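Worked Example 4.2. Consider the chain below.
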Amino acid sequence: MKFIKSIFPILALAALFLFSSCDENNIYREHKDVNAVGFKWNISDEKTYKVNIEEEGMYDISVELRHGIGIPYQNLLLILSYETPDGKATEEQVDFMLRDDAGRAVGSGVGETYDTKQTAMSNFKLEKGTYTFKIKHAMPKQDPLNPVLEIGLVVDKVKK
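Applying the procedure from the previous section yields the following structure tokens:
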């Protein structure tokens, strides 16, 4: 019991630091798991994200991928589609970089697992309302794509 009492202030300070270091411009971040058996992302497995924009402005839309080092490609072709609050649907292709020109994995990694983030739409105007974003891969020769653990969408308000 003494140990718990002595470590509690340290844990409280660590939690405070962690939460205070969050990006104040981030308005949305959500990750969706891929099939847990073998970490295989099927081409038909489209991940959906509902994002509520409370203030019209300029935003950066990014895709985050948690993946294993075993994906045999330098880049992945992803499809990012979105529907505006008024129902207009648009689709963007994202050339998602996994490795640099020297073949080194980009992003941050521990062991054979890497977290990679790439801005898909920069300085993009969003109006007030709810948007529906969808992400899927477009790698037909590699279906399912593996190892992929999670796919995430991040929306950050652009600093003025």
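The chain is about 10% helix and 50% strand. The chain has one domain: 25-157. Compare this with Example 4.1 before moving on.
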